[in-house]
Amino acid sequence: MRQLGLWINKRKTTLRMFVNLILLILTKVLSAVVPDRRFVERRLRPFLHRLRGVKIYGNVAIGDDVYLEEIYSHCVEIHDGVVIAARCTIIASMKGPGKIIIRKDAAIGAGCVIVCASGQTLTIGEGAVIAAGSTVSHDIPPYTLCGAPRIKAFGKVTVPLTMDQEYEKFRRGLKPMRPTITQEESS
């Protein structure tokens, strides 16, 4: 009897994963077909993600190509007023399910990656703003602006990395850069 129960649970999980995948594909396909961007971001995508099991409370805006947890979609919680820009990735399952909570009025910039470890809860506080291109793996306090440090140069390229160039030649051609001393540091 126990084996039958395990078999049924496995089938339910497989079926749920299949349905979630279809809904995920629909979010992309229907977004391309419907001309009203505002309707797509604020109504259609949140509706389809709710069907997938994502807990969405109130009005949210979800941009193009946003990936919300596929297998453990019920582990993502998004509150009223949240704006998620294009091409963000939100993953609540690093070697098992965790939980991601995005509180009221938070804003997530384009291309951000939010990832939570197994058994952990990652919370993005109310009114927090995450700069574009950031990777978040720990809690963000409420009303905090955060993001990656500014881009900096690591080395000098002597062999350009082109389509026809071998990666090893490019790598061997890299020369380390000496840190530059700014006027503020020298005084």
Main sheet specs: 5 strands, parallel
Low-confidence regions: none
What proportion strand?
Answer: 15-25%
Q: What does the overall shape look like?
A: globular
How many E-type strands? 15
Mean pLDDT metric: 84
SSE-based structural type: alpha/beta
Total separate domains = 2
CATH top level label of the largest domain: Mainly Beta
How far apart, in Å, are the first and last alpha carbons?
77 Å
Which fold name is given in CATH as the topology of the largest domain? UDP N-Acetylglucosamine Acyltransferase, domain 1
Indicate the radius of gyration in whole angstroms: 21 Å
CATH homologous superfamily placement of the largest domain? Hexapeptide repeat proteins
Q: Roughly how much helix do the residues carry, as a percent range?
A: 25-40%
How would you summarize this macromolecular structure in one to three sentences?
The protein contains four helices and 15 strands.
Describe this protein's structure.
With 187 residues, this protein is of the alpha/beta class. The chain folds into two domains: 145 residues, Hexapeptide repeat proteins (UDP N-Acetylglucosamine Acyltransferase, domain 1), CATH 2.160.10; 26 residues, no CATH class. It is built from four helices and 15 strands. Helix 1 runs antiparallel to helix 2. The termini are far apart.
Q: How is this fold's topology laid out?
A:
Layout: H1 2-33, H2 37-52, E1 55-56, E2 61-62, E3 67-68, E4 76-78, E5 83-84, E6 89-94, E7 99-102, E8 107-108, E9 113-117, E10 121-124, E11 129-130, E12 135-136, E13 145-146, E14 155-157, H3 167-172, E15 174-176, H4 183-186
Parallel strand pairs: 1-4, 2-5, 3-6, 4-7, 5-8, 6-9, 7-10, 8-11, 9-12, 11-13
Antiparallel strand pairs: 14-15
Helix pairs in contact: 1-2
